[in-house]
Write a structure and sequence with these properties.
This protein is of the alpha+beta class. The protein has helices at residues 26-31, 44-51, 54-76, 79-87, 92-101, 130-149, 174-187, 196-202, 212-225, 243-247, 253-283, 287-305, 307-311, and strands at 14-23, 106-110, 113-119, 121-122, 127-128, 154-166, 170-172, 192-194, 228-230, 236-238.
């Protein structure tokens, strides 16, 4: 009989926020180091393939946690957040706030894909764990431009859905299948697609304001709403070049300047890649090149539509 001890009796099915990110172009890099010489010698080509495949995967994990923490710091600099923290009273209100403010996600890795997940509810009152979602979105907003600036395109999906945690498996459930579908069948080019259920959740009416803890949750909803937008094809996406993304680091001049430089370099990469692919597609009939050229045309339209956000110096911090 198959061992089923990995699923404990205390494990239960519940809703999670689930994010999947996929590094594109890994097949080509893996091919560079798939054949080891008989004497075990590692060639320069293999080292390059290793750096641009495994190295990128490891960097994605490290960067996600770093940028998740940056998003947390950005929310804490909010004047409203500071007011909430000061006005919390001992008891249930503070217990709810404390539970919601500690919301580090768990990570899984499948090949060149990263999966981050966090329960959609937490704390003694089973409140919406909205700040966990906000920090996931914030990490994506900082991550995609930073990797594009290095010539590394990423696409993905994010949803709210059902799943379960098990010791040997980590996370599994319909939510995992949904984000994989969004990444592989819908995203198409470097963007992170938001499921329709998550879009409706983010844009729904937040809880009534009965005190500081409720106000904290309402703040999370407002922050999440500032980080999504509707694309021309009708899908909602993480607006990683939008005003909400820029405000993430507005209270840290060093990180803010670094992000502006990353966005500028990412824009240069997108324009150059679109030009390269367009020329390659015109040089000879190539369905693959033509498809890639269209993808980067969409991406450049997105960059062009958000250019003022990153060149206008009148942007203010979180309010």
């Amino acid at each position: 009989m198959e061992n089923q001890s990995s699923v404990k009796s205390e494990d239960h099915i519940r809703y999670y926020f689930v994010l999947l990110l996929d590094i594109l172009g890994q097949k080509e890099q893996l091919q560079k180091w798939e054949q080891l010489r008989p004497d075990g010698t590692v060639t320069a080509q293999m080292k390059e393939g290793l750096r641009r495949s495994l190295g990128q995967v490891l960097n994605l994990r490290k960067s996600f946690f770093k940028l998740f923490e940056s998003a947390e710091s950005g929310s804490q600099q909010s004047v409203l957040h500071q007011w909430i923290a000061l006005n919390l009273q001992p008891g249930s209100d503070r217990d709810r706030y404390n539970a919601l403010s500690v919301c580090n996600p768990k990570l899984l890795h499948f090949s060149d894909m990263l999966v981050a997940y966090s329960p959609a509810a937490a704390g003694p009152a089973n409140d919406w764990n909205i700040m966990a979602l906000y920090r996931m979105l914030g990490a994506v907003c900082n991550l995609l431009p930073s990797f594009l600036a290095l010539g590394i395109p990423i696409r993905g999906g994010i949803c709210i859905g059902i799943g379960v945690e098990a010791d040997d498996l980590g996370f599994y459930g319909p939510a995992l299948a949904e984000v994989h579908l969004l990444e592989s069948k819908v995203a198409d080019y470097p963007r992170v697609v938001v499921s329709q259920a998550l879009r409706d959740f983010i844009r729904s009416k937040p809880p009534e304001n009965r005190g500081p803890a409720d106000q904290y949750i309402r703040l999370g909803f407002e922050l999440c709403q500032s980080m999504i937008a509707d694309d021309p094809d009708g899908w909602t996406v993480v607006d990683y070049l939008g005003a909400g993304s820029r405000k993430l680091l507005s209270d840290n001049n060093v990180l803010a300047q670094a992000q502006r430089q990353a966005v500028a370099k990412a824009g240069e990469f997108v324009a150059a890649e679109r030009q390269r692919l367009t020329v390659a597609a015109a040089a000879g009939p190539s369905e693959v090149m033509a498809k890639l050229a269209v993808r980067y045309e969409h991406l450049q339209h997105y960059f062009d539509s958000r250019r003022r956000v990153w060149t206008d110096d009148t942007s203010t911090g979180l309010s």
